[in-house]
Amino acid sequence: MIEIENVKKSFGQLDVLKGMSLTIPKGQATGIVGPNGAGKTTLIKTILGLVKADSGLIKVNGQPLDKDGKYRKNIGYMPQVARYPENMRVYELFDFIKGLRDQDPVYEEELIDQFTLRPELEKSLRNLSGGNRQKVGATLAMMFNPDILFFDEPTAGLDPRSSHKFKKRVENEKEDGKTVIITSHIMSELEQLVDHVVFILDGNIRYYGSMEKLLNESNETRLEAAIATMMDEDPQEVAA
Ligand SMILES: Nc1ncnc2c1ncn2[C@@H]1O[C@H](COP(=O)(O)OP(=O)(O)OP(=O)(O)O)[C@@H](O)[C@H]1O
């Protein structure tokens, strides 16, 4: 479980998180949606300790974030844009991360095969295609079998087959009791994967609750229509 209490973050004059509070339940999947620049990635990075909140409290599994970042051992993160040492080969990157984490991977070989990364292992990261970089990020996020998984726009750039495999994998992770947090602009994808929806607008949480409740309350059958309706109700915020 991840508890977020009145978290604020500004970059200079820009108030990105304006006092957000929410609880992300354990063992379920939560989708974070919102317009470009709404603060989705900033919220994720704040939970991961990669961005320091100006104020507020974040607890992961009941514990406030520790300064040495030990809690992150239990977290996998697939960033929206991954920056790697570009001269490293893919297998060297995997070895490097294993060394850094001082952990043996559980699913390295399985994920390499699942994402057909084996022919890419000898390549330098600078020479990888965009989709294969994404798959490297997905593999790193899941290979240590963490309890909490963050995916920031995971399927952007994946071909349909890889995207399908990725979603199947995430479904399996969920069935295994993992806590999954995903941001995406592809609402059909979230419909398939998530139990709860967080809709961020203008630095605030505009909606937080189950997908089912959201569809019922908005009288819509599809998430895309429900979110679009909420955006239309706040035209100024969306335009901002
Ligand atoms: N390190 C930073 N310094 C200054 N501004 C930043 C920084 N990181 C993010 N921002 C700004 O904070 C706002 C929120 O960015 P964020 O990446 O969280 O949005 P997002 O909801 O993930 O957007 P998208 O859907 O486009 O990925 C944006 O206006 C962005 O330019």
Describe the structure.
- This is Copper ABC transporter ATP-binding protein.
- Keywords: ATP-binding, Nodulation, Nucleotide-binding, Transport.
- Belongs to the ABC transporter superfamily.
- GO terms for molecular function: ATP binding; ATP hydrolysis activity.
- The protein is globular, with a radius of gyration of 18 Å.
- The relative contact order is 0.17.
- The protein has 9 helices and 10 strands.
- With 240 residues, it is α/β, with parallel strands linked by helices.
- 37% of the residues lie in helices and 25% in strands.
- It folds into 2 domains: 102 residues, P-loop containing nucleotide triphosphate hydrolases (Rossmann fold); 106 residues, Rossmann fold (3-Layer(aba) Sandwich).
- The site of adenosine-5'-triphosphate (ATP) has 12 residues, from strand 2 and helix 1.
Features:
240 residues; alpha/beta; Rossmann fold; six-stranded mixed β-sheet; 9 helices; binds adenosine-5'-triphosphate
